[in-house]
UniProtKB/TrEMBL annotation, chains A, B:
Species this chain originates from: Micromonospora arborensis
Stored InterPro entries: F420-0_g-glutamyl_ligase, F420-0_gamma-glut_ligase-dom
Domain Coenzyme F420:L-glutamate ligase-like, residue spans: 12-210
Name of this protein: Coenzyme F420-0:L-glutamate ligase
Record keyword Cell wall biogenesis/degradation present: no
Pfam family, one: F420_ligase
The keyword Glycoprotein is assigned to this record: no
Origin: domain of life: Bacteria
Keywords from the named record: GTP-binding, Ligase, Magnesium, Manganese, Metal-binding, Nucleotide-binding, Potassium
Listed GO MF terms: coenzyme F420-0:L-glutamate ligase activity; GTP binding; metal ion binding
Length: 361, 361
C-alpha cells in the first residue's frame, strides 16, 4: 500500500472559457480511475471568468480592491491594520475573501469560484463523460489559520468523495471508542497536493494516486460540509471584535434576570471586581439574609418574586454629582454581574432605607 | 518527479523505554536518505513515559482528567460545555492540551511529549548515528481548528528540515511578487502521513519519500516556529471569553483620554448607540462649537487642554433616583465611547450650567 503524489506538468496559462477537463486530460494522459485531482482554485476561477479589472497601482487600486472585497464579504470576522479576515458567501473564513493578485495580470484580481463544489462536480463529470475517467476532484486554495504560523492548502470544493472520513464507532485495540473521529481528509489531500505543486514552478494540478481504488459518487455535501456554523464556532469573531462587542453589550445592557436562582458567589465576585474602581465611599451590599430581604422588598412595588437584592449607597454627604457618580458605579456593578451571567434591574431603594438604589437580581 | 507516502507496518505496541529508532529501523529496513518520517506523537509519548494513571471510569476519572489537564494548561483560550481549548507549555493551542485516552489502556492518559522538537531531533540523530540514515523527522498529532469541521494532522516537532518553506521574494510569471509566501509544509507533510495512517489499522509511522534528496540539518527553530505569539494572533481568545473580557473592561473602565484629536463622528456614533437604552429625557450633547466649548470649560478647574466636551442632562424634574439613573446612562455612554476607542473622564458640569455632568474626551 502506498500513495503517490504526481504533478501535472505542462498546463500553460488558463484563460476564461478554457475547457479544464481537456486541458488536464491532455497534460496528464496517464490519469487513472481512482486518482484524486487536486486543482488549484485559481485556474478554475480563471476558466470560469472570475476576474475583475482593477487599476495596476496607486490609491485607485486599493480603493477598487476594497470594493471587490466588500462584494465578496458576507461578514467581517476580524481585522487589524490592512488585514481583513472575512466570511465569504461559501461560508469559508479567509483573509481577503480569497481574492488573489498573484499569477494574474497586474490589472486583474482573481475571485474564488462561485460554487467550488459545483466546479469540482463539473470537472469530474466532464472527465468521466468525455474521457471515461472516474476520478475525485478537489478544488484547493491556500489559507492561513489562527494560532499557527504558515499557510496550508485546504479544500474549497470536492466531488467524487466525501470531505470527511468518519471513524465514528471504531474501537482501538484497548477497547476505547475513538475520540478523534472526523478527519478532514480532503484538506490533507489538498495539502499533500501543495507539497508537489510548491516544489515545481507553475503546477496548478497534482494527482494523489492510491488513496482509493474507486471514487464515491456520494460526496456527502461536498466541501460545504467543512464549514462550521458560526453559532457552533468558539472563534466566530476576532478577539478585538468580540471584546468591542462586549463593550457594546455593556453600553446597551438591558434590565432583566438571568438564570435563577442567582449564584450568590458570582454576585460577590462581581462586587469585588468593581471594588477597586468605584468612587471611594460607594458601598454595595448583597442582602443575603432571607428575612431581612423579605422585609425590605415587601415595601417595593413590582419586586420580582424571589429575586436577590443588592443595596447600593452613595458616599455621604450625598450631593447631586455624587449621585451621578454613584449611578455610574451601579452600572459598573451591573456590567460585572452580566460578565458573571447574572442579570439585574435598577430600582429605587426600599422606602425608608438609607440606600441610594437597589438592584433586583 | 513524484512523492510517495508509505506506511511503516509491523510496529507493535510501544511502551515506556522502547528504542523508537530501533523499532522503526527494524520495521522499515527500506528507509532511505532524504525520507521524511511522520511519527504519531502518541508512540513518542509512550516511549518517553508521558503517561499518567487515572481511574478507568466514574467521576473519579473525570476529576483526575481535569487535574491532568490543568497541569498541561498554560492558558485557557476558550471553553464551552466540556470542551476546553487551551494553550500548552509548547505554545500549541489544542483541545484538552492534546491529552488522549485512545490507543492506551483505560487506566492511563497519554500526554504530549515534553519537547517534540527535541524528540524529533533525538530520533533523527539516533537513526543517523546507529543506522547511517539521513532522514527528516516530524512528530505529528491530530488537531481541530476554528471555522472548519473535521480534524487534520499537523506537526508538533520537526528535525532535519525547517517547518516553513518560504517563497518570499519569488516572482510569478506576471511579475507580481508572491503574496502567500510562507507555507507550513511540515503540517502538510503531517497531513499527508495521516492519509495513509488513517487507511491502515495501527500504523503510527508514515514515510514521505521524494520530498527532497537531502535533509537540512538547520531546522530553523523546529515546529516552535509555527507557534504564533498570542499578541500577534487575531484569535487569541474565544469569542465568548473575549466578549466577557469586554464586559469586564466596561465594568472597570478607567478615566483617561484616548488618541487625540478625538474623532467627533465616533462620539456621535456612541451617543446614537445608547440613545435607545438611556432613560427617556436623558440628553447628551457634544459641544462641537469651539467658542462655546472654550467659554464653558474656562470655568472648570483642571480641564484637560484641548479636550472635547460632552454635556449630559438628567430628565427634569431632577430627583435623587433620577440622578442615579442618569449616572448609569453616563457610564453607558462612556462604555460606548470606549468601544469607539474614545477615552473619557466624568466631571462635574460647568458652574452655572443646567447640565448634570460633563465628559472630557
Amino acid at each position: 500500500m502506498r500513495l503517490e503524489i504526481l504533478p501535472v506538468l505542462g498546463i500553460g496559462h488558463v484563460t476564461e472559457g478554457d475547457d479544464l477537463a481537456a486541458v488536464i486530460a491532455t497534460a496528464a494522459p496517464w490519469l487513472r480511475d481512482g486518482d484524486v485531482l487536486v486543482v488549484t482554485s485559481k485556474i478554475v476561477s480563471k476558466a470560469e471568468g472570475r476576474l475583475v479589472d482593477v487599476p495596476a497601482d496607486g490609491p485607485e487600486r486599493l480603493a477598487a480592491r476594497d470594493e471587490v472585497l466588500a462584494g465578496e464579504t458576507v461578514r467581517v470576522v476580524a481585522s487589524r491594520g490592512p488585514t481583513r479576515i472575512v466570511q465569504t458567501q461559501h461560508g469559508f473564513v479567509m483573509a481577503s475573501a480569497g481574492i488573489d493578485a498573484s499569477n494574474v495580470d497586474k490589472t486583474q484580481l482573481v475571485l474564488l469560484p462561485v460554487d467550488p463544489d459545483a466546479s469540482a462536480r463539473a470537472l469530474r463529470d466532464a472527465l468521466r463523460e468525455r474521457y471515461d475517467l472516474d476520478v475525485a476532484v478537489i478544488i484547493s486554495d491556500t489559507m492561513g489559520r489562527p494560532w499557527r504560523n504558515g499557510l496550508t492548502d485546504v479544500a474549497l470544493g470536492v466531488a467524487g468523495m466525501p470531505a470527511i472520513r468518519d471513524h465514528r464507532g471504531e474501537v482501538d485495540p484497548y477497547g476505547n471508542e475513538l475520540q478523534l473521529t472526523q478527519m478532514a481528509v480532503v484538506d490533507e489531500l489538498a495539502g499533500a497536493g501543495e507539497l508537489i505543486k510548491g516544489k515545481c514552478d507553475q503546477v496548478p494540478v497534482a494527482v494523489v494516486r492510491g488513496y482509493f481504488s474507486a471514487t464515491n459518487p456520494d460526496d456527502a455535501g461536498g466541501a460545504r460540509a467543512l464549514v462550521r456554523d458560526a453559532a457552533q464556532d468558539l472563534f466566530s469573531l476576532g478577539t478585538a471584535e468580540a471584546r468591542a462587542a462586549g463593550l457594546a453589550d455593556a453600553a446597551t445592557l438591558a434590565d432583566g434576570r438571568g438564570p435563577t436562582p442567582v449564584d450568590l458567589t458570582a454576585v460577590r465576585r462581581a462586587i469585588d471586581a468593581v471594588a477597586g474602581v468605584v468612587t471611594p465611599g460607594t458601598v454595595f451590599t448583597l442582602v443575603d439574609e432571607a428575612e431581612v430581604r423579605a422585609g425590605l422588598v415587601a415595601e417595593m412595588p413590582g419586586w420580582p418574586d424571589g429575586a436577590a437584592l443588592v443595596l447600593g449607597s452613595a458616599p455621604t454627604p450625598v450631593e447631586p454629582i455624587g449621585l451621578v457618580r454613584f449611578g455610574a458605579d451601579l452600572h459598573r456593578l451591573r456590567v460585572a454581574l452580566a460578565a458573571e451571567g447574572v442579570g439585574s434591574t435598577l430600582l429605587p431603594p426600599p422606602p425608608g432605607s438609607p440606600a441610594s438604589a437597589a438592584l433586583a437580581l
